[in-house]
Specification:
With 305 residues, this protein is mainly alpha-helical. The chain has twelve helices and no strands.
């Protein structure tokens, strides 16, 4: 077979961009659907187990406090999960051309970056209002914010992030090279990564740095590790809650090539929270992880190609 024919065959073997985007969003939709079904089944099973063994302790392992969370929190978490589900549904519909084509739907813009910051701040404010004002919780005690001195938080975050970063890099290499390439072909970088690497405007880059390295770690850790995780843990057990919350965390980033690495990363954040009981530690680790990746993109933009 000649080189031209081989090249033509390779091109034909690659799915068109809209079909590839549709496939990726379909995978994410399937994953989140299975996760939600597993959540319902897990809570139902644990209700039965608690009734049969009322003296056995469920969801109480580790240092993450679950007692302040009750039945009223389940509907709130359910609303958040439904919101995430429909985010994936919208992405799936957009990739299929219902929202004007995959390429237009997947483009990332400055307005998207600004909107994400506003949305993050709104979600964090709503969470604090609900837990602190309506539920009358001491947020500092609830999230273990004063359990560790600042110096210890910094040390634990930095030292803990070293093996975690290596683990995530290994998971990404294995996942992308041995599981995804045959199915999806040559993988495209995330739109945010490409936008970050290609945009040279200082103001926009500063906005993205603040959003990625400060706002996102704080909001995502309070939302996923600080709230969703202990609520699910309260009504199931610590292992299922860690796996489920980490999977949802990975899925809402809506990128199949980073699904497994982000799940592994989130599991490590959950473990750090359980070991220390202080939410500042996973927040610090999250911020360091994002800062390393942003630094790599800024210093070596060709990596985003």
């Amino acid at each position: 077979m000649s080189g031209v024919e081989s090249g033509s065959e390779d091109i034909e073997m690659q799915p068109p961009i809209p079909l590839l985007a549709d496939l990726e969003s379909g995978i994410l939709l399937d994953v989140v659907s299975i996760a939600l079904i597993a959540l319902v089944l897990s809570i139902a099973v644990h209700i039965v187990l608690r009734r049969r063994n009322p003296h056995r302790v469920y969801g109480m392992h580790g240092n993450v406090w679950t007692q302040p969370f009750g039945l009223v929190d389940l509907p709130v978490v359910s609303i958040l999960l439904i919101f995430f589900y429909f985010m994936i549904r919208w992405s799936h519909a957009a990739a299929g051309g219902e929202q004007g084509g995959a390429e237009e739907a997947m483009e990332f813009s400055t307005l998207d970056a600004l909107f994400s910051v506003v949305l993050y701040v709104f979600l964090l404010g709503a969470l604090f209002f609900f837990l602190g004002f309506l539920r009358l919780n001491d947020l500092s005690e609830l999230f273990g914010l004063t359990r560790l001195r600042v110096s210890r938080v910094i040390v634990y975050s930095v030292v803990g992030m070293i093996p975690v970063y290596l683990l995530v890099a290994l998971v990404m290499y294995v996942y992308q090279n041995y599981f995804l390439k045959d199915a999806l072909g040559e993988l495209e970088p995330q739109e945010l990564v490409k936008f970050f690497a290609e945009n040279t405007d200082t103001g926009i880059r500063l906005l993205l740095v603040i959003s990625t390295c400060v706002v996102a770690p704080v909001v995502e850790e309070f939302l996923f590790r600080g709230y969703i995780y202990p609520v699910i843990k309260r009504f199931s057990d610590h292992f299922f809650a860690a796996v489920f919350t980490s999977l949802i965390f990975a899925v809402v980033h809506m990128n199949v090539p980073t699904l497994a690495p982000l799940w592994a990363l989130a599991m490590c954040f959950t473990l750090a929270y359980e070991l220390t009981g202080c939410l500042w530690v996973p927040i610090g680790m999250h911020a360091i992880f994002n800062a390393i990746n942003v630094s790599l993109i800024l210093s070596a933009p060709h990596l985003a190609d």
